[in-house]
Amino acid sequence: MREVLLSVALVCGALPASAQQATCGGSFEAFVAGLRDEAITSGHDAAVVRQFLSGARQDPAVLRRDRGQGIFQTPFIEFSRKLISQDRLDRGRALGQRFDAVFSRIERDFGISRGVLLAFWAFETDYGAVQGDFNTLNALVTLAHDCRRPEIFRPQVFAALELFEQGNFDPATTTGAWAGEIGQVQMLPRDILENGVDGDGDGLVRLKTSAPDALMSAARMLSGLGWRYGEPWLQEVVLPPDIDWSRTGLETTMSVAEWERLGVRARDGALDDARLEASILVPQGRGGPAFIAYPNFRVYFEWNQSFTYVTTAAYFATRLQGAPVYDAGSPVPGLAGDRMQALQRALAARGYDVGAIDGILGAGTRAAVRDMQAKLGLPADGWPTAELLSRL
């Protein structure tokens, strides 16, 4: 599920100007020829490049999947209940014990709790069982040729070429997810080049077949993305009824001590270090569950940009570490589909940057909703409702 965004966005700023300015679209054959010429000009052996790209084909199924990510329109409670089952919890905890030595090493070297990686492992490939059967080269070249996000995927084609030169990628047989991710935790070629770790000590980095390799590599990547050693990421809280709802959301951060002075309490146990900066999240508004998000929570968005996915993954990680099931409360029904798009159009017409009119409640739409609610005298919890749409 890393398809919404992947950490490669961080790489784009370091690309040579020729890669950043490269065109997309047009004849697919001419596009592949352009990739070939650029690779050779960059110093790659011409015969190797031709061998690597000789079988590249456009995959219409990849484009259909790219355009059809409707699951991210699902509200948090429904989404999390779909992804988190007792079976997944049980298997995750069992795998945590089975690979205890690997997770202990990760906790020692990177300060990342095992629940975090177990949750990614579960959501990305169901603990390695479903890794995808799309030809990886075709997926990458197809998405690089497509003009929606070429700046993300074109560099990955050249990273895959480097893996091929190392003997770690077969353009004919390497398969993975539709967006080009490979292995049990779904990493793109550039991520593998920069963060691949031989976790099992066999001298190879095999993210498809070796759980220790995949887990250690994912830990190294998260650490490189800014994970703060030994710190928490998310915790369920109980909010006071008189809280200023406009302070909720990732746009507002205060110290844990300041939140405590406002009456925020942990639902189970105690809040973490009072000096940490944190935000309060109410994924389905004031009537639903509430969480405090610590700095490490923001690192999740370098893995995936969907707020719903990120919150679910972070919450599942806490469950794997013993946290109770969240209190779902009684949230007001939200908007979906055409009505959500109608709200986005209304907000955009008023000058708000909500991104694409796609029916997905992303960060831009949430912020716009919160601001408009405040202007209309409604509780500014960032949750879009029929009342808000009616008022607009």
UniProtKB/TrEMBL annotation:
Residues 27-317 form the Transglycosylase SLT domain. Pfam families: PG_binding_1, SLT_2. InterPro entries: Lysozyme-like_dom_sf, MltB-like, MltB_2, Peptidoglycan-bd-like, PGBD-like_sf, PGBDSf, SLT_2. It comes from the Bacteria. The keyword Signal applies. Gene3D superfamilies: 1.10.530.10, Bacterial muramidase, PGBD-like superfamily/PGBD. GO terms for biological process: peptidoglycan catabolic process. Keywords: Signal. GO terms for molecular function: peptidoglycan lytic transglycosylase activity. Residues 1-19 form the signal peptide. Residues 337-392 form the Peptidoglycan binding-like domain. This is Lytic murein transglycosylase. It comes from Salipiger aestuarii.
